[in-house]
Amino acid sequence: MLDKLINLFPEPARPYVAPILAIVIVLNVNLGVCSYLILLERKLSAWMQDRHGPNRVGPWGLLQPLADMGKLLLKEDVIPGHVNKVLFVLAPGISVFTTFLAFAVVPFGPVPSNLTPGDGQFPFIIAPGVDLGIVFIFAIGSLAVYGIILGGWASNNKYSALGCLRASAQVVSYEIPLGMSVVGLAMLNSSMSIEKIMTNQVDQGFIGWNIWYQPLACVIFFIAAMAEAQRLPFDLAECEQELIGGWHTEYSAMKWGLFFLAEYTHVITISFLTSILFFGGWHFPFIAEATSNYTGATAVKVAVLLSKVFAVIIVIQMLRWTIPRFRFDQLMGLAWKGLIPLATVNVLLVMIVKQFDLHTLWLFPLSIAAFVAAGLMATQSSRPFAIKAKLPVEGHGHGHHVHAH
Amino acid sequence: MKNGALLIPVCLGWLAIFWLLPRAKPRSRILGAIIGLAALLALQATFLPPVGNIVRDGMFYLFSGSAILAATLMITDRNPVYAALWFALTTLSVCGLFLLNSAPFLSAATIIVYAGAIVVTFLFVIMLAQQTANANYDHRAVQPVLASVMSFVMLGALLFALQEWGGIDGKADDAAREGQFVAVDASSKANQFSQPPSSNKTEIGSMRVLGRSLFSDYLYVVELAGTVLLIATIGAIAIAPRRSQGTL
User: Fold this and answer.
1) Looking at the predicted structure, is the pLDDT value of residue B227 above 80?
2) Which positions 144-163 of B are in contact with A (Cβ < 8 Å)?
3) Of A67, A73, B120, B181, which is least surrounded by CB within 10 A?
């Protein structure tokens, strides 16, 4: 079917047909899905808080996203007089650009193994064969913070500035556990390419899912990615109670909408990555195996992958009303004292298993043990290495009462 | 004097940068831009890249042009925030050049480390430190003559060395051969790790080959750099104030 479409074009243009088709599909589906994810999030929030949620526009509020979109497009786009205009306009663009660019190496279906340009197979990925894979996503993701920083600074507003300072500290810190968590994965698969990691899991079947080898890395990756996307337990940069709207206080209409489009695209990307890197991509026992070749198998595989992604998105949205927002020092402590050492231990475990030729399934109990040990160390009052706080204690009868400063 | 031609672009470039450096009284930017363009054109005579694929050449000129432009704007902009942003753009352009020369990992790592972390930290500091009412001396270069002369002497030395060396395309005797990261002395037995896997010579620049080279050819340097970073980390922790001293 795709061959016929490709053959409609002149010879020099043919290699570009399938990639452009993939880009068009990804962009448009993404835009549509983002607006409906917002509706889903509002409905889920309402359900969790025992409310009705949006139910006025269309049946069950299903046309609410269209109404929202119309409102965002038609509202007056205010650019306050005291802002730095160039950077103020540039910031939402950077946010959207970087999050969409990161999607270029994320497969959204069964990527054919023998892909050549213009051979009539749909690639299911915008940029196939990128050796870097995850590193590329991290590189682009590290640029996403510019949107927030510039937006916050250009707004020339104290709340925005505080929000952007918080955001930059947070994103720069959480990049480290995010990157470290996939090092073990890369060592096990001897590749950073997302397609290769997915194919390796699919070839081994259900037992090949990386969650059995890297459960700790999965948890670290998921937490760090949530923090990178500024989702709720980590949304200190825009927390309403302290900072009005944080870095987007001064934004209105579609510029504000672009920031949220970027946030939801980021959520979709991390959901894709979590399901591909740790939950076997499009593989599901009996339904979508590497050998399954029945009619419509490709559609089933895509559906399996998308269902996994949807499940992760639901988890992310439910977490929003489950865990309260962190305090800033807790947030930094979690990254630097919790996630980074744990990620290092995880890499060390993979190295040990590889070096001594143990069965890779040993990684499952080892990771769980590392996680439990970290939990015990953090919660026990008589923990080793604990810094005893030297608080001045009134009436403590041992001679060293008050250390006045 | 076969390297004498290098003096023209270096001097012209120095003149352009010297003219454009921020002063108390603003100067014509167009004049500086024209001189700078003349310097680049003069340099083309000696360092023209080989012409081949039109897309590749276009990308090369795009990335290198934006790198030079952004670097010039970085050192001549009066606003430190803009200067940091131009620095980020310079880094991104250079990463594009890395990508063109089949070094994707180097490019991604540079983006993560420089554009993603270091420039963000710069911006952080500048935004915290910058006052709204800037004094006059914040708007001009401190040592324009010394700084520009020194940097262009270094640039001239670099260009001279490049011209003498002859490049990676095998003109020079001590250049790396095809499929090698570093030149291997003909008399010594080649380190097998620095050779790319025999199956695929185009894999050079991939992470596998880069890793093998880093941990064989450059093992001592990597370990040394790691040690220096470790010492710096310990030093930072040692300098940071203690809880008992009232902060944190």
Assistant:
1) yes
2) none
3) A73
Amino acid at A309: V
Domain at B4-187: CATH architecture = Up-down Bundle (1.20)
In terms of DSSP H, where are the helices of A208-296?
215-228, 240-243, 253-278
* Average pLDDT value for residue range B127-149: 73
Rounded Cα–Cα distance for residues A300 and A307 (Å):
10
Q: Tell me the per-residue pLDDT of A249-296, one tens digit each, with 9 for 90 and over.
A: 888 888 888 888 888 888 899 899 999 988 888 888 887 777 777 777
Question: Per-residue pLDDT for A404 more than 50?
Answer: no
**pTM, to two decimals:** 0.82
Of the candidates B88, B111, B121, which has its C-beta nearest A139's C-beta?
A: B111
Interface test with A, best of B90, B98, B123 (most A CBs within 10 A): B123
Domain with CATH 1.20.120.1200 in chain B: 4-187
**Residue of chain A whose Cα is closest to the Cα of B110:** A139
Per-residue pLDDT tens digits for A182-197: 888 888 888 888 888 8
- Is B116 in contact with A145 (Cβ distance < 8 A)? yes
A31-66 as b/e: b if 16+ CB within 10 A: eebbbebbbbbbbbeeeeeeeebbeeeeeebeebbe
Please give the Cα distance from A147 to A162 (Å, whole number).
15
